[in-house]
Amino acid sequence: MQQQKLIFRKQMAQKTPSRLTFNEPDIDGLFPGFKTGDFAVIYGPQTVTSLVSKLCVRAQLSKEENGLENKVVFIDAASSSSLSNIIQAAELAKLQPQMALGNLVKMRAYTAYRLTSLIMEQLEEAVKTSDAKLVVISDIVSPFLSDNVDDQEAKAVYSQIMSYLASFAKKHRIIVVATYLSHEGKRRNSILQEISSAKAGTVLRFTKTPYTSEVELEKHPSYMLGIAEFNPEFKTLADFSAAIIANTGTLSYKYIKN
Questions:
Q1: pTM, full prediction
Q2: Euclidean distance between the first and final Cα of the chain, in Å?
């Protein structure tokens, strides 16, 4: 099959699609997609990183293919993501991986100070320069869970950047999606989750066991809230590992890439 081409031609652009979806039937039936101006937080295990990688690729598709036909700003907090996820998502979408990677404006932060600086001081320029319509922040909370950050400072600054992102999405009419990976047992985790859910307009939560996966729409200004079973089409190596362990009690396999 001939590979699709990414098209960025403003003079031929049609009306912007009303929603950017995951293109996963189990999710789309519950959550029809993101709209411009949305600020969303997605909770869950490492699987959500793969799902958001799929969003990064879908945003680059032409508007005829329900994409945004634009570049994506991708902020990786605490090295929580991998470019291999983007490559896999591009291959599944029949896109050239290097082209998909080239349309990512990649930024990385290992500390709370650096992440705050990227968001508050550099994000606006990155969006304007690239004309991106989607901003993704991978595991936004991780740097603020570090013991090197004072409790009160962590709460105050984290609340500030979450408020900023909510306003930023509306002001620039773009979609901002932040993932919040599982950090059970970490100090401040509960209070920072509360802040995240309060500031975001959309909240999705993915839960996963060796046997089942579910997605819950916890918060949205207009969609009906609810829970649905989720069987991802986009599977990572970790997913295969968990399935094998659940069925056999051991991990012994060969990974073959088609």
A1: 0.83
A2: 15
